[in-house]
Amino acid sequence: MTQTAISITNLDKTYSDGLKALDNVDLEVKKGEIFALLGPNGAGKTTLISAVCGIVQASGGRIEIFGHDNIKDYRQARSHIGLVPQELTTDAFETVWNTVKFSRGLFGKPKNPDYLEQLLKDLSLWDKKDTQIRMLSGGMKRRVLIAKALSHEPDILFLDEPTAGVDVELRKSMWKQVSKLRERGVTIILTTHYLEEAEEMADRIGVISKGRLIVTEEKATLMKKLGKKELVLELYKSIEEIPEQLADFDLKISGGGFQIIYVYDPAKEDNGVVRLLESLKKQNIKCKDFNTRQSSLEDIFVQLVEGS
Predict the structure, then answer these.
(1) Alpha helices (H) in the chain, listed in sequence order
(2) What is the total count of domains within the chain?
(3) Helix count and strand count (H, E) for the chain
(4) 0.90 exceeded by pTM
């Protein structure tokens, strides 16, 4: 049976100005999984992460980290956690090596220079080990934050918008590191605005909106349950408008009039595809090719948030 890494029950957070940032959140994250938390700005993503990490005190509810209450057994609970925050906050005048070494010492871990050396090499930081943080680029500073978070060998890693403002090459490099961590059994919770990352990396997806966790699903299940498909029909001749006889299908013209796009639900037995093809034939609209494509996670995300 897979061990539960994080257990959140009835979690609430209301700030002093009356803002309800978290509203009765329940969530379990299993050891070794990658869980992606998605939501618009102000949805409660960072507040939830901060509450689990003990940075923000919840107004109600319970959080356990590998069975340890994160309030009563704070030290034990926190020792399991590494956090990479959104903001680039670190000692600007300290070197990379000293910063990471100090972070490990904060958790009472014994010295392990070999581990820290390998960690910096994995993050392409080894040649910068004696460089002051202030001299690094934004992307390199982001890597230092990841190194700090991993310095004490945590079982759980929180990545709060880890690749915001990072170039594509650096982003791919970071995700290679995430894959290595997963292979070691590290539990990873990430928030991101790059939905393709969640779609590629995550095992499960949670969508939070207005402080409420509105859905938690296996990624594949979520895609299957809510993902519509598009039928793209390539035409021999371009058309300027959809004939009135086809109005019920809610078609869209694309590709300079040489494409018709039909959105349908593949889970439905009568999804309209056969009827559409028959109707096109009656209207003497000839197709030379067609293909289907799955709605992306971004499409699903927008659909969920709009319906919440």
Answers:
(1) 45-53, 74-79, 96-106, 113-122, 138-150, 168-183, 195-201, 219-226, 273-282, 297-306
(2) 2
(3) 10, 14
(4) no
Question: What is the per-residue pLDDT for 137?
Answer: 85
* 168 and 249 both lie in a single domain: no
Both 174 and 29 in one domain: the answer is: yes
Q: Could you list the residue range(s) of the whole structural domain that residue 253 is in?
A: 229-294
Q: Are 177 and 146 in contact (CB under 8 A)?
A: yes
Taking the C-alpha atoms of residue 141 and residue 125, their distance in angstroms, rounded to an integer, is: 10
Q: Which of 2-16, 64-78, 93-107, 253-267 comes out lowest in average pLDDT?
A: 253-267
Cα–Cα distance measured from residue 81 to residue 49, given in angstroms and rounded to the nearest whole number: 11
Please choose, from the candidates 252, 255, 230, 249, the residue with its C-alpha nearest in 3D space to the C-alpha of residue 241: 252
Contacts of 277 (CB under 8 A, 6+ apart): 287
Rounded to 10°, the helix 168-183/138-150 angle is 10
CA-CA-CA-CA torsion sign (7, 12, 16, 19): positive
Q: Does 305 map to a domain?
A: no
Boundary of a domain, candidates 176, 205, 224: 224
Q: What is the CATH number of the domain that holds 285?
A: 3.30.70
- What is the per-residue pLDDT across 280-294, written as a single tens digit (0 to 9) for each? 988 899 898 988 877
pLDDT higher than 70, residue 308: no
Domain annotation covers residue 299: no
Q: How far apart are the first and last CA of the chain?
A: 34
Q: Do 215 and 273 fall into the same domain?
A: no
Read off the DSSP letter of residue 40.
-
Is residue 307, in this structure, part of any structural domain at all? no
Looking at the structure, tell me whether residues 186 and 38 fall in a common domain. yes
**Nearest in space to 208 (alpha carbons), one of 59, 308, 300, 65:** 308
